[in-house]
Amino acid sequence: xxxxxxxxxxxxxxxxxxxxxxxxxxxxxxxxxxxxxxxxxxxxxxxxxxxxxxxxxxxxxxxxxxxxxxxxxxxxxxxxxxxxxxxxxxxxxxxxxxxxxxxxxxxxxxxxxxxxxxxxxxxxxxxxxxxxxxxxxxxxxxxxxxxxxxxxxxxxxxxxxxxxxxxxxxxxxxxxxxxxxxxxxxxxxxxxxxxxxxxxxxxxxxxxxxxxxxxxxxxxxxxxxxxxxxxxxxxxxxxxxxxxxxxxxxxxxxxxxxxxxxxxxxxxxxxxxxxxxxxxxxxxxxxxxxxxxxxxxxxxxxxxxxxxxxxxxxxxxxxxxxxxxxxx
Length: 328
What we know:
The chain is mainly alpha-helical. Helices cover about 75% and strands about 0% of the residues.
């Protein structure tokens, strides 16, 4: 196992370098950029230099006057030292802006992910054990509704009912009007209150697919020969389902759990936008549309690292979940 992990880490490192290079090339090829906006604004001032002169000066200032290969090598050298530069749009260090925004999205994503597991897996197992019953049909309808509902529609519906009609929540934002006058505990509760609807939205729109996935895999396991043998030996139904069948159902679910790691930090663009939550999804979208290469590079490479890490964690968990899986 140790040799396998070391081998995978080395392979992942080279994959990360290649992915970072592709992202850097794409960032350099953006049709619009922050530099063009600044150069255009400065060139329109009375007695100012031309647009081309300003572009040359700004490119030299931000290191964009180098070619793609030298520029990428220079970026890698700074990245190894932990220096990702300043964000062109937010005018603060990239890591500072990322730190300010990512934990909001992480909190939302983690809570919704835990709720998704607690809701989807038990309901999927129950639906499989009671196939074609009223319970199965009810779970299937709930799952299909969650899969089919567009995020913007469901979020708008929640805002209409709970914000406009009932007045239980504010229409948007992370803090209330009297946030500054509250105590530390009150400020924490105020933020939690504003995150209720976004978390409900993320949970409902994601629980359906995992519920159906669990049901399908559970049905496949329940029809296996060793399950029929276990029942023929006189084992109780609960022992057959939750000790033998469910353990093997966890193997494909582990893949989803490991692959969900990047989603906890990537943010939810539509949800954050509709609820005016300044999370990393909304911040990264604004950075990309404005041509903020330093922030976009850091964000995309960070997601690539999480994706590679999630895949490695999934492979390692296989051996934990299923003793038959061993890495030779």
